[in-house]
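Researcher: Sit down with what I've pasted below and flag anything odd:
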Amino acid sequence: MEEREILDADVLRILQRGDLKGRIEKEKEENGWKLKIVYLLRGNREAGVVTIVYSNRPELRVVTVEWEDLP
């Protein structure tokens, strides 16, 4: 997050207000689902949060955050 200059508050905003992008994948080892949520930040830049939502726990794990317009 620090490398990409995406703040904790940005991640929370993305998760709260963003939209699902791409496929939802089953994570067998994690007993959950891997997905990406994206949201428009800082003008016209869309950022994504890849996360795992657990099937049997009331929590999620953030895998990575990324700018969508960068390769």
User: Anything to note?
Assistant: The radius of gyration is 12 Å. The chain has one domain: 8-67. The first helix runs from residue 8 to 17.
